[in-house]
């Protein structure tokens, strides 16, 4: 018999605050706090999730606090309390509680034995408070004896944070208001309370980012007000104006010219906005101080002078007013704001270029039939949307983004996973294309997520600043996906997958981003990475036909030959393909102010042994973590630094000066070799070969070993890893065996991928420099030294017996994976670099390794270069 799974979503079981209180105790703590109180009593209101904590020396003190709290809450809140719920502990299940609950008319509820899920409200609160307290103590390096203070602070923060439980917004004194500005004589916000109409100054404000920037139903200026602005200004004055004007349209000026008599009057729902430069000037009457009048024709320009932004969000049929500013003023203004990045929607709507960008995005929605305007259904989960800027490198580009954090699982979305191509899959394709001497091309799908269909009913508010003038209260129902929706990536992948399969493509057996089309002897390969698609094949006709098919189905742009992909710079020439990150390297050095640092010939000195260094000088965590993350991305083409970066990454929680010095040594090394990368020769074969190595107890903190592996396609290095093992190895034999077993799974993945390419292999050689590890893999011997090894690592022996792999001995001096397990001295490091990294188009992966030696040790390997040659 199977037990029913418990509901993962916390549900509110009550209709009013203080109706049901959950109780639980935490402790005793392992660290004596200040005051000597070892236990924590946690009480949570079921409806609002407001919580109380009380610290106790013993559990017997729980009743006294609960007794006083219940009486106080009844007097303060006025709500009728119905029940108390706790576990079967003696602090709750006793005569004191029984008598008190009976006298107060309270139901005393107990949990079923061993079913803590019934008390999930307070159990979840316990975990939240403890994790918040631990985070605060770790962040500020506070002694553990202050844990009680940290939990008390965490409880206060939790109570005063805007939270949601089944859509119920709760707080101690939550009130809706409108942000007006900042207080002049205190550090507080000025807020207009909507219920009372009062203006208060307070710092306890939580901004609801899900709401649009306008407040429907409120008029800033009434119908009886005179004029078009809040403050009366002379129309000749040039000054700074606010972002918005009343939602009620002003009366037309009495001095309109004859040309304006037939202009339609805007509807009362029209939203207005002040012009950024100057107020409009009517056509009647001479203009003053306008300078010399010229008769030269006005040159064309991108600034839409005759269409200020107030007409964008107002009535489109209203007449256009003209600005009195000169052409020079427009050019000066354009030069000033040409590259500015707006910080909010109001700021963006003040610039014509950004307004045009927003219109392009909305027109794209209409063209792709992304949504329809409907009446909001009752009890629907309404999601907000906001404008996002994609930068101004080429042109102003605005993107409308759904606020996916408002979505609820099971209601607004189900599955969200969408596969993306792995880096080793990209490198395999590059090596395969270079060996077969065909070019790779790249296409980019425009507005990619707008092409995916969604099955759930999702409703969003209208875009801020672009509400429908006749139906401002309607909402949009999605027919397709939108940026920000949790299911958008999966919806796009499913749309593209179905289209490619319908066109005759076969999906990879293990790599679901790989699609292949075979036409006779010709092969077309497609690899997808969200909206970036790279493809190539032995037939140029197939490539052209594929692009035509994609262009008919999706709106896209042809990028030409593959040159830049997910940060990788790719150079395809007849002799092969060179992959590097030189631009990223230079940007990285400038980012961390190392562009002028002295170069270093190695990535880490062998004399440097990193440990926790608790007495060392602390350094900035954010900068240190930024260095680690940036260098980890650089390992996409620079494997020789992966081991050292991984060692430094262990100390991100509390970095010291010694750790920063070590990571800066890596930056100085890449300063010495900014142009290094991977070379995939056209003369390389496609034989699959791997190296596996490990150090022993190299980590000085936990004495765990580090595994290092390389995988080659002929002379092309396509995959590698440097990873600390999960358990402590008691011998070098065990460390090498574990490394080879972990490596075996990667080889099998590559084997399945290459079979999709049409390549077949018999036994894949794994080169290992440990004779004892090879013996353990080939024979069930040395029981006393291997009986404790986890059974999952015997996966290596199983695949050897099946004939999938072969384990071959290689001399230690020819073990190229050694550089991924520990720092090397300068001479050894230089030799290994020459065997792995290509500089420019001269060095080839594999140079420096004894070709004849390896060829003699790999029996039956059908490879002209023996897997490694220059």
From TrEMBL:
It comes from the Eukaryota. Gene3D superfamilies: Ribonuclease H-like superfamily/Ribonuclease H (3.30.420.10). Residues 253-305 are annotated as: Disordered. Residues 13-159 form the Integrase catalytic domain. Transmembrane segments: none annotated. SUPFAM superfamilies: DNA/RNA polymerases (SSF56672), Ribonuclease H-like (SSF53098). Pfam families: rve, RVT_2, SH3_retrovirus. This is Integrase catalytic domain-containing protein.
């Amino acid at each position: 018999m199977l037990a029913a799974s418990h509901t993962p979503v916390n549900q509110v079981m009550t209709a009013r605050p203080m109706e049901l209180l959950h109780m639980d105790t935490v402790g005793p703590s392992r660290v004596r706090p200040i005051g000597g109180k070892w236990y924590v009593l946690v009480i949570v209101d079921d409806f609002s999730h407001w919580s109380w904590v009380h610290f106790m020396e013993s559990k017997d003190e729980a009743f006294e606090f609960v007794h006083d709290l219940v009486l106080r809450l009844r007097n303060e809140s006025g709500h009728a309390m119905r029940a108390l719920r706790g576990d079967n502990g003696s602090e709750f299940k006793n005569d004191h509680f029984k008598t008190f609950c009976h006298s107060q008319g309270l139901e005393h509820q107990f949990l079923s034995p061993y079913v803590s899920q019934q008390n999930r409200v307070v159990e979840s609160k316990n975990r939240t408070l403890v994790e918040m307290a631990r985070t605060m103590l770790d962040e500020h390096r506070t002694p553990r004896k202050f844990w009680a203070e940290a939990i008390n602070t965490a409880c206060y923060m939790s109570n005063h944070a805007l939270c949601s439980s089944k859509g119920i917004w709760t707080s101690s004194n939550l009130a809706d208001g409108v942000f007006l500005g900042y207080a002049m004589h205190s550090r507080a916000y000025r807020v207009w309370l909507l219920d009372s109409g009062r203006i208060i100054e307070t710092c306890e404000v939580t901004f609801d980012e899900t709401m649009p920037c306008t407040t429907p139903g409120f008029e800033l200026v009434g119908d009886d007000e005179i004029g078009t602005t809040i403050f009366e200004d002379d129309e000749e004055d040039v000054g700074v104006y606010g972002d918005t004007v009343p939602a009620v349209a002003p009366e037309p000026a009495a001095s309109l010219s004859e040309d304006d008599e037939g202009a339609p009057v805007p509807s009362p729902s029209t939203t207005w906005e002040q012009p950024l430069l100057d107020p409009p000037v009517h056509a009647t009457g001479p203009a003053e101080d306008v300078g010399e009048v010229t008769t030269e024709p006005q040159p064309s320009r991108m600034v839409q002078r005759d269409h200020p932004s107030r007409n964008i969000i107002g009535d489109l049929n209203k007449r256009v007013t003209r600005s009195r500013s000169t052409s020079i003023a427009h050019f000066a203004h354009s030069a000033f704001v040409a590259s500015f990045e707006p910080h909010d929607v109001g700021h963006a709507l003040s610039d014509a270029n950004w307004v045009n960008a927003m219109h392009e995005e909305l027109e794209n929605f209409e063209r792709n039939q992304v949504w329809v305007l409907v009446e909001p259904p009752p009890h629907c989960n309404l999601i907000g949307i906001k404008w996002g800027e994609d930068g101004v490198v080429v042109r102003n580009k605005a993107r409308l983004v759904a606020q996916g954090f408002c979505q609820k699982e099971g209601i607004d979305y189900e599955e969200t996973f969408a596969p993306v191509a792995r880096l080793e899959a990209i490198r395999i394709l590059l090596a395969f294309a270079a060996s077969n001497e065909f070019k790779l091309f790249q296409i980019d799908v425009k507005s990619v997520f707008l092409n995916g269909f969604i099955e759930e009913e999702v409703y969003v508010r209208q875009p801020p600043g672009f509400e429908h003038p006749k139906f401002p209260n309607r909402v949009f129902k999605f027919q397709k996906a939108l940026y920000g929706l949790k299911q958008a990536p999966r919806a796009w992948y499913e749309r593209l997958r179905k289209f490619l399969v319908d066109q005759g493509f076969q999906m990879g057996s293990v790599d679901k981003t790989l699609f292949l089309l075979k036409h006779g002897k010709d092969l077309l390969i497609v690899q997808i990475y969200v909206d970036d698609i790279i493809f190539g094949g032995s037939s140029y006709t197939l490539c052209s036909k594929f692009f035509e098919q994609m262009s008919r189905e999706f709106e896209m742009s042809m990028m030409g030959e593959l040159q830049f992909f997910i940060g990788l710079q790719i150079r395809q020439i007849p002799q092969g393909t060179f992959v590097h990150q030189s631009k990223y390297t230079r940007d990285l050095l400038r980012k961390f102010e190392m562009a002028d640092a002295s170069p270093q010939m190695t990535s880490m000195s062998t004399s440097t042994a990193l440990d926790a260094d608790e007495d060392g000088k602390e350094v900035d965590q954010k900068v240190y973590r930024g260095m680690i993350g940036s260098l980890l991305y650089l390992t996409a083409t620079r494997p020789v630094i992966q081991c050292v970066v991984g060692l430094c990454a262990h100390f991100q929680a509390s970095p010291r000066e010694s750790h920063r010095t070590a990571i800066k040594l890596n930056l100085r090394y890449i300063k010495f070799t900014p142009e290094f990368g991977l070379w995939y020769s056209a003369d390389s074969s496609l034989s699959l070969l791997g190296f596996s190595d490990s150090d022993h107890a190299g980590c000085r903190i936990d004495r765990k070993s580090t595994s290092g592996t390389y995988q080659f396609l002929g002379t092309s290095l396509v995959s590698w890893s440097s990873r600390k093992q999960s358990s402590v190895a008691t011998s070098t034999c065990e460390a090498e065996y574990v490394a080879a077993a972990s490596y075996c799974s990667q080889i099998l993945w590559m084997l399945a991928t290459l079979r999709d390419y049409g390549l077949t292999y018999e036994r894949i050689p794994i080169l290992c420099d440990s004779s004892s590890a090879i013996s353990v893999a080939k024979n069930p011997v040395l029981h006393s030294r291997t009986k404790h090894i986890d059974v999952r690592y015997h996966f290596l022996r199983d695949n050897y017996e099946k004939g999938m792999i072969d384990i071959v001995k290689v001399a230690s001096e020819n073990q190229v994976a050694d550089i991924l397990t520990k720092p090397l001295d300068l001479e050894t490091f230089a030799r290994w670099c020459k065997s792995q990294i290509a500089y420019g188009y001269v060095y080839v992966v594999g140079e420096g390794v004894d070709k004849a030696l390896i060829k003699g040790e790999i029996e039956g390997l059908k490879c002209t270069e023996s897997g490694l040659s220059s």
